[in-house]
Amino acid sequence: MLAASCSALGSQPTEVQQIVLPFIKANAPSHQTYFPKLLALVLDKTAATHGPYEISYFRNNFTSARIISELKFGRSINVLWTSPDEDRERELLPIRVSLLQGLNSYRIFLIRQKDREKFKAIQSLDELRRFRAGSVSNWPDTKVMQDSDLPVVTSAHYDLLFTMLAGKRFDYFPRGLYEIWDEQQVHADKDLVIEESLMFYYPAPIYFFVNPRDKKLAERIERGLQLAIEDGSYHELFFSVPSFKRGYEELSNKERRIFDLEQPNIATPKLP
């Protein structure tokens, strides 16, 4: 594991709280490194009351299903960030503070460049059902699309989906407004482009989650988020990420046709 950040205080609690996060690539784009930076910010905000901490990253690049299992059983990691669903809400402990200010609830598509005109001609959800979406097997997004009778091709591995799209295993890959810009650049060599006329909307907040037994850590993270929102440092960090700013700009694009998909049983975030 690699030490990432540490905060220490003289007369305050001196036991260092160890925070272990899922593996992140060294060259990860800013929309991925935002979450560890935000966690470090909120832990700094609570150092005076909860003591010092140290962040490290687990060495193995697990699938998202394995990461959730590791947290559920108290192995390897003790904090992750993901979207809620019924299983995650039941098996893990969510800190219900939105980390992305709603950007993940709006999804636009990565497609093959040669399919631009096909997607531009789509006028209804029924017409979109002639095409196949791609998604990770255990993502809540997969069930949302399946519940709307949208054909979905799945993989356990997120990184593989871009190659599968390029290889015509499916036709479009819905991605959050906060992440798609970086992803398109990373995979530009696969001739993938951002579709320009369609958008999904369904509630899909991103929360920090901890093990259900780790209630004190959950309380610390929630308090730190509250403090960061109140003093403006949360918003400052959020809008320092170029893809997040780009995502907010895209929300004002009146040229997109928005398809509302049902996403039941998602609790409303407390803040911001």
Provide a descriptive summary of the structure in words.
The protein is globular, with a radius of gyration of 19 Å. It contains twelve helices and 13 strands. Residues 1-11 have low confidence and may be disordered. With 272 residues, the protein is α/β, with parallel strands linked by helices. Strands 6, 9, 10, 11 and 13 form a five-stranded mixed beta sheet that branches. A three-stranded mixed beta sheet has the order 1-3-2. Strands 4-12-5 form a three-stranded antiparallel beta sheet, with helices on both faces. The protein has helices at 30-45, 47-50, 64-72, 86-91, 116-120, 125-128, 140-147, 158-166, 180-186, 215-231, 233-238, 242-250; strands spanning 2-7, 17-21, 53-57, 80-82, 93-95, 106-112, 133-136, 152-155, 172-176, 192-194, 198-201, 207-210, 257-260. The protein folds into two domains: 2-102 and 205-241, D-Maltodextrin-Binding Protein, domain 2 (3-Layer(aba) Sandwich); 103-201, Periplasmic binding protein-like II (D-Maltodextrin-Binding Protein, domain 2, 3-Layer(aba) Sandwich), CATH 3.40.190. It is 37% helix and 21% strand. The longest helix has 17 residues, at 215-231. Helix 1 (30-45) packs across helix 10 (215-231).
